[in-house]
Amino acid sequence: MKFNVWIKLLSLTLVYLENIIFVPNEQSIFIKALRNPLTKEEAFKKLVSEYKERLYWHIRKLVLDHDDAHDVVQNTFIKIHLNIDRFRENSSLYTWMYRIATNESLNFINSKASKMGLQNQEWIEAKANGLMADSYFDGDQAALRLQKMVAQLPEKQRIVFNMKYFDNMNYEAMSEILDTSVGALKASYHHAVKKIKNELND
Amino acid sequence: MTDFKNNNPFKVPKGYFDELEEQLCSSEDSISKLNPFSTPENYFENLEDLIYRKLHIQKTEKKSTSNYLLLKFSAVAASLILLITLFEKTSPTELENDQAINDFIETYYIENFDSYDMLSMMEDTEIELTIAPELKP
Predict the structure, then answer these.
(1) What residues contact A76, with CB distance under 8 A and at least 6 apart?
(2) pLDDT tens readout for residues A41-75
């Protein structure tokens, strides 16, 4: 038998063994589709359709303003599209996207604040103070007060509070997204709740 | 003690557990109302198209930027080759010397030169060749 035929047989056997030993799960099949130039566009459309609302609301709670959230959510999906080959699959696709969305939101706040010569927290507080004039804010006085108090929290506590209180996310998922230990996240949430409770009691 | 443990002295109102489910569902509604933010109408329906459009623009921009960079690099490379070729043939000092001599001739010799000066700088044979045809009868 010729050498080429042997090589072909060997590679086919390897592919067969790979499929038997490493049964691909739903996520890895989807990621393969996202990486394949022939199926990338279709898979990306599915991804956007499935995650657009969840990522938008996560971003919106961090940047507060709709127009800002719109810019950040678009950039988040573009980053996901451009960097899907770099995703190492050691976490779920959802937490990886959530991490990109969080980083994009923080970078956005950082850049906007520095352009205005403000600290990040000062910029967020200014945004929270202007919420009543925002046509896409339907909250009452109590909701506005809560948003203002959340805006006064340090960055990490603010993110943790939003994810836990509003999104009801579990600490394990938050730990993966924020690359912080569960213990530290619990402490951050505890401090945030304590500060808000004290403010409400005043 | 065991009798005490097994005896539950507490009671709940009649139908309490049936209503509890309803109460919990309604409290979930109130939690969802904690989100005081809203979006423009049909925002999420249009968001997908906006993302694809932006992605397409980014790709086109990336392509044109890379073409522009290629053109820029080619122009710089061509200019460098041209400069190197020119500098190899004539060094800057040579160019300056030539210019100085030309200036000197223009300002001094052309202004103060008469036919005698010119004749004094010429060899005898050159004079003969220049003047001879006119002197010939």
Answers:
(1) A55, A59, A97, A100, A101, A104
(2) 899 999 999 999 999 999 999 999 999 999 999 99
Which residues of chain B lie closer than 8 angstroms to A137, CB-CB? 36-38
CATH code where residue A137 lies: 1.10.1740.10
Residues of chain B under the 70 pLDDT cut? 1-13, 16-33, 62-67, 87-97, 101, 104-137
State both tokens at A38: 């022939």
SS3 A58: helix
- Pick the residue of A40, A59, A166 with the most B CBs within 10 A to test the interface with B by mutation: A166
- A69: distance to nearest CA of chain B, Å? 10
B52 CB neighbours in chain A (<8 A) are 45
Q: What is the pLDDT of residue B19?
A: 62
Q: Which whole number is the average pLDDT over A143-159?
A: 93
Is A67 among the domain residues?
yes
Q: What are the contacts of A13-17 at 24+ separation with CB within 8 A?
A: none
* Domain shared by B100 and B81, yes or no: no
Under 8 Å CB-to-CB from A191, ≥6 apart: which residues?
A157
Q: Which residue of B has its CA nearest to A145?
A: B36
B48 φ/ψ angles, rounded to the nearest 5 degrees: -55, -50
